[in-house]
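fyi for ur records
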Amino acid sequence: MLHYLKIFSWLLFTFAVVGLVALLAGLEPTMTSVYKATWLLVLQTLIASVLLLGFKFYRQGKISQKLLLYSGWTLIAVLVIAGQIWINL
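which gave:
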């Protein structure tokens, strides 16, 4: 499960950066406003960065595998739920 979390964290980070670059290039989101999309992508970048930083701390032995696994998937679930609510408001 930890391997999938790492892959998913990199995908979250990559898609957030690509989305922010697209917004800066002038592309308009179709489902929501630019304001909401920008904040959602910034939040996604922050959560992915925290997860990737967690992997660094795990390699250094500062946090346990269990803590990284449960907190990582919890952060992703919160991001998905908050993102759906934010887009639909």
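The mean pLDDT is 92. thats all i got for now
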